[in-house]
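Students often ask why inverse folding is considered easier than folding. One informal answer: many sequences map to the same fold, so there is more than one right answer. In these notes we will look at a single instance of the problem. The structure comes first.
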């Protein structure tokens, strides 16, 4: 025999009810079938509301009307689908049950309360109506049914609202009065009887438990739980869209997952089926052909060390500590006995190795009662100072990893805690069972989403999300967006999802947590009228629990650069070709690195020097390896490299500058290049990376212009005066050629000093052949001398710079501090 159970959402409408009947009749072709049904969706909650409203307000007419309407729609819909469906019989049964309900309402109104035995009878009426409805539907299709009355068959012990079935006695009842052959057994879930024959209910997930009990009592070959999801997932798919559907779980794994918050099954559901080794299959009513998740003795089909990540929310952590705890036999027993007497469930327990303290988690709603219990039970110890005042930590949650193979897999705990650290989550407490099948961490309640996402990315073959917020969509920014668009599909095949969640320029800001369509970003940004706002961007990140936000600043704006510390401190990585942040005060330079280190975020700025060349990374690696910079020389401006290269060809300085400007290699105002300030900023960044504490004013700057040259006026005025510089450069170039040298604009670091100026270099100098817009950087260090480490290549241009920014963006996936 197979036992099938259908939950409330599977019976919510006539169409779903009919689909459940299809599944039942399909199974009857292969073996005998018994079915357990919940009440249709919203019925049990409606019955609870009937009781509450009657107690509080003395009436519940609207709630009763809604219950009646749900069943009327169900009966009418089934009548339209099945021509011989006996609606009249069901309407009579519904009226009978509602009349009984009205009598109960009158009694509750009269006494102003609802005893638990009456409460159990009221809230179980939905299940009884489900069974009668399914029986009528199956009979209309020509099948014989047998109503299994759980009050007659199932003996339970415990409270009216939370009883446990005695499977031994109940099994005897089924053997004494078996389900007739060739009949479909139909049993309402959630219900049993106590030793006095009174109706009791089986508590939360009672219908699932009923199905497991029925399967155990009749020694079924399989128990199938039909729900509205495809099976058990590695975590909540509402938090992680690409959560893994698990093909199999062991009984122990299922027990741990359900205990620590997985909603598919309740822990007590696992007990009967595991005891008798009955496999349990979780399937989707809306996808009957899906494989589902099989719970059995062997859960190793998925070959995963960690099977699932679960959470329990809205908890309070209690810390009992003091010198009286150490060596005092029975202290822990007294704590938990006090909890047990008042029925307070303890979710997790952890104790310090010094025995100085013991901590445990309870439901937040139980905090007040717990405070009174501990105060009363330990009044003397608290008064005498043997115990410190009990500490209560509110608004905590438990995130747990579960998997049988965790016992033999190395490094799981390390990856778990590293994942939490990566999203800056403070761990309040840690607990691991002796079976090593699960490990749990107590964390702040508002960090649950981030914890689950980070753990799933690191522990499963999950997508890694790069959520970018790009400020500045000029040359570099727009080219970066085009490169992202071209690479999105290829990266997605590798499990890397790039989403541009924010775009901003001087006119407006566009935000979308699901990602802006990169095919139409220009039109969307034109229509954006919201100004750039860091707080607004931060709210989007927090509300959508984005765990890996990245600010990409493609501007040269000082105001934006001044906000980098705020971004880093708020959990953003920062990627930028903007040199302003690293060349303001040394104090701010250190603040940036401290903020990145403190929040374990990356501050990536490789493109500030050398554009796409790996300059910063290589220098950082040299210093980290114990090397020391002795001297540096370099051509750090692509535009000046072009201009001075033209001088080699015999062109005048003004002609060379005009040609390079018209080719788009200079700034719109060439004075920004010729002033030398841009080269000075790059040189200062290199000096600071090498450990020098210098300010921008410490860099000696000689412009790429004759001394005292008039740079006043607008751009056109300046360009008209530029030929006046030709004679000066013609003489410099002539003198250099006479010695076999060429002119170059060079940045230099030596003896702790920085300078940028025009120099003449000979053929043996690494800068001699650099003239086509290339950058060249020569590092002389203890390891690299007398021959320097030379990096050479294009150091300017939107494509190269955007590619370098893109590379920095990808490096944030390493989640290691890049400072």
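Output (designed amino acids):
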């Amino acid at each position: 025999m197979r036992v099938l159970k259908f939950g409330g959402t599977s019976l919510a409408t006539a169409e779903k009810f009919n689909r459940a009947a299809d599944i039942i009749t399909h199974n009857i072709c292969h073996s005998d079938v018994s079915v357990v049904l919940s009440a249709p969706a919203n019925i049990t909650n409606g019955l609870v509301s009937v009781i509450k409203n009657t107690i509080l307000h003395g009436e519940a007419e609207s709630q009763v009307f809604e219950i009646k309407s749900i069943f009327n729609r169900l009966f009418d819909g089934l009548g339209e689908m099945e021509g011989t469906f006996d609606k009249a019989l069901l309407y009579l049964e519904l009226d009978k049950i509602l009349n009984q309900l009205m009598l109960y309402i009158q009694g509750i109104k009269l006494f102003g309360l609802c005893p638990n035995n009456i409460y159990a009878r009221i809230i179980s009426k939905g299940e009884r109506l489900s069974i009668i409805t399914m029986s009528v539907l199956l009979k209309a299709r020509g099948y014989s049914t047998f109503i299994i009355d759980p009050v007659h068959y199932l003996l339970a012990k415990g409270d009216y609202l939370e009883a446990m079935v005695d499977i031994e006695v109940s099994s005897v009842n089924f053997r004494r009065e078996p389900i007739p052959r060739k009949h479909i057994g139909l049993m309402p879930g959630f219900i049993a009887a106590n030793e006095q024959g009174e109706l009791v209910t089986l508590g939360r997930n009672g219908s699932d438990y009923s199905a497991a009990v029925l399967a155990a009592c009749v020694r079924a070959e399989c128990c199938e739980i039909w729900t509205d999801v495809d099976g058990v997932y590695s975590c909540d798919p509402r938090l992680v869209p690409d959560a893994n559907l698990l093909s199999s779980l062991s009984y122990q794994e299922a027990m741990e997952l359900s205990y620590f918050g997985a909603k598919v099954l309740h822990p007590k559901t696992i007990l009967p089926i595991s005891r008798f080794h009955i496999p349990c299959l979780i399937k989707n009513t809306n996808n009957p052909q899906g494989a589902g998740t099989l719970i059995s003795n062997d859960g190793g089909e998925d070959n995963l060390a960690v099977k699932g990540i679960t959470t329990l929310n809205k908890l309070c952590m209690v810390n009992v500590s003091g010198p009286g705890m150490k060596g005092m036999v029975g202290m822990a027993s007294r704590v938990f006995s006090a909890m047990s007497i008042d029925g307070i469930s303890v979710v997790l327990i952890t104790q310090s190795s010094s025995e100085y303290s013991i901590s445990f988690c309870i439901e937040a709603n139980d905090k007040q009662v717990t405070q009174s219990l501990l105060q009363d039970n330990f009044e003397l110890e608290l008064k005498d100072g043997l115990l410190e005042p009990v500490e209560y930590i509110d608004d905590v949650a438990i995130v747990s990893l579960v998997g049988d193979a965790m016992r033999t897999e190395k490094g799981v705990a390390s990856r778990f805690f590293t994942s939490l650290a990566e999203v800056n989550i403070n761990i309040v407490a840690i607990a691991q069972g002796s079976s090593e099948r699960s490990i749990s961490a107590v964390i702040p309640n508002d960090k649950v989403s981030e914890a689950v996402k980070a753990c799933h990315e690191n522990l499963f073959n999950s997508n890694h999300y790069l959520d970018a917020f790009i400020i500045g969509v000029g040359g570099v920014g727009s080219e970066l967006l085009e490169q992202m668009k071209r690479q999105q599909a290829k990266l997605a095949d590798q499990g890397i999802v790039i989403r541009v969640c924010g775009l901003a320029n001087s006119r407006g800001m566009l935000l979308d947590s699901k990602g802006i369509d990169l095919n139409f970003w220009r039109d969307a940004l034109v229509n954006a009228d919201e100004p750039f706002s860091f707080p607004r961007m931060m709210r989007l990140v927090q509300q959508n629990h984005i765990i890996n936000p990245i600010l990409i600043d493609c501007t040269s704006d000082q105001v934006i650069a001044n906000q980098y510390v705020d971004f880093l401190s708020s959990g953003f990585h920062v990627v930028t070709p903007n040199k302003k942040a690293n060349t303001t005060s040394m104090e701010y330079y250190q603040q940036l690195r401290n903020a990145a280190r403190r929040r374990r975020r990356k501050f990536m700025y490789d493109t500030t020097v050398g554009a796409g060349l790996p300059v910063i990374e290589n220098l950082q690696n040299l210093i980290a390896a114990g090397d020391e910079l002795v001297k540096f020389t370099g051509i750090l401006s692509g535009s000046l490299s072009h201009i001075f290269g033209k001088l080699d060809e015999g062109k005048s300085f003004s002609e060379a500058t005009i040609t390079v400007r018209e080719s788009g290699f200079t700034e719109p105002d060439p004075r920004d290049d010729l002033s030398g300030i841009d080269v000075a900023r790059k040189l200062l960044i290199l000096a600071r990376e090498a450990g020098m504490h210098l300010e921008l004013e410490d860099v000696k700057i000689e412009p790429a212009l004759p001394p005292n040259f008039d740079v006043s006026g607008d751009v056109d005025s300046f360009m008209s005066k530029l030929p006046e510089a030709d004679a000066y450069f013609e003489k410099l170039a002539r003198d250099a050629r006479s010695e076999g040298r060429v002119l170059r604009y060079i940045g230099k670091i030596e003896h702790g000093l920085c300078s940028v100026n025009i120099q003449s270099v000979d053929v043996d100098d690494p800068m001699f052949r650099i003239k086509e817009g290339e950058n060249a950087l020569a590092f002389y260090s203890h390891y690299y001398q007398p021959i320097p480490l030379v990096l050479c290549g294009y150091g300017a241009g939107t494509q190269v710079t955007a590619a370098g920014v893109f590379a920095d963006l990808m490096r944030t996936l390493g989640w290691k501090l890049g400072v």
